[in-house]
Amino acid sequence: MDHLVQIILIGVILTNLVVLGSHPLNTCIRAVALQGVALGVLPLFLHGREWSYHTFLISFMVIGLKGFLIPILLFRAIREAVVRKEQEPLIGFTASLILGGGLVGLGFAVSSGLPLPAEIKSSLLVPVALSTLMIGLLVIVTRVKILTQTLGYLMLENGIFAFGLILTKELPWLIEMGVSLDIFAGIFVMGTLMGHIHEEFNTLSVRKLSSLKG
Amino acid sequence: MLIKMISIPVTLAFAPLLPGLINKIKAVFAGRQGPPVLQLYFDLFKLLKKGAVYSTTTTWVFRAGPIVSLACLLLASLFVPLAGAYSPLSFPGDVVAFAYLLGMARFITVLAALDTGSSFEGMGASREVTFSILAEPTLFIIFIVLVRCTGSMSLSTMFGQAVSRMPMKFAASLALIVFSLFIVCLAENSRIPVDDPATHLELTMIHEVMVLDHGGPDLAFILYGASIKLFLLVALMAHLILPMDSGDPVRDWTYFGATVAVLTIVIGMVESGMARLRMIRVPRLLTAACMIAIVGMILGMR
Q1: How far apart (Å, rounded) are the C-alpha atoms in residues A53 and B117?
Q2: Which of A94, A110, A112 to substitute to test the interface with B, most B CBs within 10 Å?
Q3: What global pTM score does this model have?
């Protein structure tokens, strides 16, 4: 079981790198969707085979939401706004890949110093969660297009979710719901914003927001 | 001792098979008949029978280029284990020697290309060096991870016994390393995502453009050297996929031959299924390979 978890977590790291390094938006969205599915599968295998309705429900919901619903919404947003391949990164893709590698290292370095219970400390989960979170932030900061910023936000949220998975046995329903609702609301706002920015400026670049329009 | 020496004739004899196999696979994917698998052997014999023509602007560097590069690659081939721990030469730290012998071969090829004074060749040389700058650190990171996993500093133990000796916790880093080694192998051997060996349009060429002015035996040496380089890197990759140190030579060699053939076919399939990347995108691919190797290293260091 532990090997499967490791493979899934390494897959999560690799999807992070894919988002940092690939040019077409479609690929980025698919990578984030894959990440969501991977994280959704995780709760089933994390704590051995003590499956309850609770874990199944969490899994199902996360896969549905992060793996399918949100990506579909994003794809629709792309279709409506007719953007295909224009991501305006503030720093080059190669540079952001290198930074991403550095952040993965940082995640591992930081997680070894955190005061966590021993069995959690030995697993990959915490470093992967931290590095996903940081890479999400990196994407938000270094990409100008609002859609990629949404993707960064999603990745950040994925990182938080992975961190929360440590406690998934005790994680109450309400918090789970709250987190998912939070993402959903966030995406909803972003989508609306996207529509409005596109209507107003005929582009999805956030740079334009600094110039006032009547 | 004798069993260790067997890898020398094997390398010398079977290296030219690999490009032939790749071309055959590409032909099959394109629905063509394709050249015979032994085509490179015929080419080599044909070229060796010819005389060479040298331009008057070139110096001895141009003539030394193919000879030195082939010598370097042959020397490097002595360190590489085939089918387990059968490498003719090994000492602790020969990974560095191996990497720099490959570097030396590239360096002298680049010098010979610059020596012709042709602008095309200079362009090719510059590209070759640019991409190798990115490929070499990746190779070293891969070596670092293997040193960490196997606790030895020589190629034959590092690769030859990597899979069977490695503790289970390094499995993940091993998988990542194989992947990035594959990309390095494509880049080093100027295969498709990085460079198209079939094209002869100077503007898009990297490796082929450097050897445009070589002819006859010189070209034969260069082609032979390129095939040996491909063989070596594929052999190294093969060792990371299947364990080959069971001690039963028949079984080891069978495994080895099968894995090398499968990897060659995979390279052929990648070449058939992909287009050459734009020049600007190649560094990104190599950086990605480097980052994957680094993630493997981080996982291995815990």
Answers
A1: 74
A2: A94
A3: 0.87
